[in-house]
Fold:
Amino acid sequence: MALRCSVNVFIDQMVDFKNRFFRLGGTMALFLNLLGDDELMEHMIKSAEEKANANPFEQTVDEQIAALRAQNEAGSWGITEDVFVRLAQTAPAWPKGKDAYRSLRIRFGEGDEGVALTFERHAEAMKRVHDPKFWRWELLHSGTVPYQGKSVERLRLLNGNQSHKAVVEWVIISDLSANRTRKDITSVRSVQSLADEGLVLAWMFPKRAQAIDYDKWCAWYCGGYESNVPEHGEEWQRVVVVGRDTVSGRVHLHASWRSGDNSGYSVPPLG
Structure:
């Protein structure tokens, strides 16, 4: 009985496929050509697979450079014209994958001060792009912030702040949805995990951030960052995360425990 039911379901699906084929403009001549021409059928299947796996948030190089120009002007970042020319000339091809991105690493300054400056500039860009639907956790600080009379470091790179250098360059993120299934964040993150690159994604691809539903489109941890929150009795136990409140629609910038295993969040790497 179970086998008969599954066969009936398959037949029903094939009938529905045939009906939709003709309803959407397919002709009997094309239908017969597909049945008799393996090369044509392979082409159709390949085209359908490419379409099904295409990233709906894909942008052209010109669109991405325009987004960078807008934030450069709004934030007075000081990126010069020769940088924009270089980016236009060196842009890699858009990567294949439904949640793959050609994006940018944009860092300012060096060392500790550079890490803090870069974080704040990208957080401000996120706010400009998503305002009024943007929220930042009040305990997510960058740089050094006083706590109980002492100056306490609040944010650092997993790769060490000494690795931070000023740069504007293309990066590839092959799968923003990577590592949704995991034991915890610590077990899957590395020095290749997104840090400030994850913040750039949130303002350069605002529709992707606004699409976060924790099911089809995940939120993402910037696992290349470590966050210190002494107000909660913690020391470097949190990881920066870009998320979204699905009720209010606000895009969130906050920090969550590095033990998190919620599959609604990814821990993507570069490359």
